[in-house]
């Protein structure tokens, strides 16, 4: 037994407790102060009813510039459709001239958009769709119409299908790939269509038909290749004497000069690629 001191509140008798009771008497519960923390709930922002196609301020001048740029894009689209109709009617040369005009309008809409400050994601998607119509569909139709009389239709159809498929891949890859200010990754569809249209316009009758089919197929694969091809801004920086060679060649023998220029540009991609690998 353990003697426990008196409590002041006891009635006078000695309080007694066993050792077990003293050791295992539970302590008083610890009181915890709970302070409520206010929770701020942010209401979701309402979604806009419509998406603006023209970023920035909507002044009358910017709207007119935006309409002008998209008019150039639609002109390229319309000329591509016209090239298809003319090729189906047998007017292959005029159809090729329409393709050249498509190339002009395609370059014009991008230059105007940057100059006037109305570049937009809508314009980029619009340009890509117009390019697919003009350079991915109209160009193969014109090529097929120009080759159908000199090679078997199956060979002309396969080469044209390669152009259409590779153009679609090239445009889709361009939309999702990072841009390089110095080189193209593969031959651009605009340049490929320009080469095909000029080939039809100047009429390379001295070359065998199957050689032309091989050249068309090679150009199609060059569009989806990973070889670096110099942009026009880098080409114009070449030594002046080197730029005069194509001009002199065009004055002497324009058709052969055209073939050599295209072949040199196509070969420059693998050469630059191998040079970069070595470095």
TrEMBL record:
Record has Membrane as a keyword: yes
Gene3D superfamilies in UniProt: 1.20.120.1760
Assigned keywords, A-Z: Membrane, Transferase, Transmembrane, Transmembrane helix
Family annotation (InterPro entries): CDP-OH_P_trans, CDP-OH_PTrfase_TM_dom, CDP_ALCOHOL_P_TRANSF_CS
Record-annotated membrane-spanning stretches: 66-88, 153-171, 183-204, 210-230, 242-267
Molecular function GO terms recorded: phosphotransferase activity, for other substituted phosphate groups
One Pfam family cited in the UniProt record for this chain: CDP-OH_P_transf
GO cellular component: membrane
One GO term of the biological process aspect: phospholipid biosynthetic process
Family membership: Belongs to the CDP-alcohol phosphatidyltransferase class-I family.
Record's protein name: CDP-diacylglycerol--serine O-phosphatidyltransferase
Organism: Actinoplanes lutulentus
